[in-house]
Amino acid sequence: MRTTILLDDELAENLKKAARIRGLSFSAFLAEAGRAALKASTSIDEEPFELIVAGGSGPKPGIDLDKTSQLLAAEDEERYGS
Length: 82
What we know:
Layout: H1 9-21, H2 26-42, H3 68-80
């Protein structure tokens, strides 16, 4: 496929230099870089993070771990009293 792209002069020169160093044409270098970028952006399918807690039976009653202000307030009460 033939297409036209606009690059700033400094980027274009750096890409051409990198292509020469690797022994590739400018088009081949851009195609390779594009494939690598697409592969990198689609390989982020990681398993969801699971928090493993040592000891205890979970958060204290009434503490919602999604509300960090409550967690900080409970920690302050425990440390400094109410």
